[in-house]
Amino acid sequence: MRVQRQPQGCVGARSFLFAAFLGNCAMRTLNPQKIFEHARKFQWANEFLRSNHITQETVHSAADPSMVLSAFACELYLKCLLCIEGKTGFDKIHDLKRLFDMLGPDLRRRIEQVWDADIWQPFRRNMLAQVEGAGQTRIPRSLSWALKAGALAFVKLRYVFEEPKRDIKFILGDFPEVLKKVILEIHPYWR
Questions:
Q1: Model-level pTM?
Q2: Based on the structure, what is the number of domains in the chain?
Q3: Is residue 64 very low, low, confident or very high in pLDDT (cuts 50, 70, 90)?
Q4: Does residue 21 form part of some domain?
Q5: How far apart are CA 178 and CA 29, in angstroms?
Q6: 114, 181 in Cβ contact below 8 A?
Q7: pLDDT given at position 20
């Protein structure tokens, strides 16, 4: 078998292209609109699951997947907001509280205002009251508590079978809508 040698220029060009590729990976900039669009897909899937297929018989089967979808949508929306603010260094972070805390104070305040308005809606109040009645536990309504309690939901709920006793209190199911609303206030043309 005869091996053909490639001309020196081709090897040099390949090396250059590979080096350029590596440089682009290290210095890539994330596009917040693409993150936003991706988050919307997970939010849509969660809403579809919750609104069209949940019955009394299937609620237990759908609960964990729904919370994973919601937590992931939250993570992506928070990362979108961080990109909008020009922040970096959050790619490997899944902790929702940590991502939220990385946002600037004005943006955090606005998200909290929208959360506060949403959490006290009659539908939400009734839902939380039912959960409290079933578990006989008071659930705080503050975003700070919800983020702390559900900070690692995306990681923990994906592998719930590994932890027989899970301590996840997740009331962030509708938090993606809050984040989407705030993003659309900043970029209304992304609708």
A1: 0.78
A2: 1
A3: confident
A4: no
A5: 25
A6: yes
A7: 44
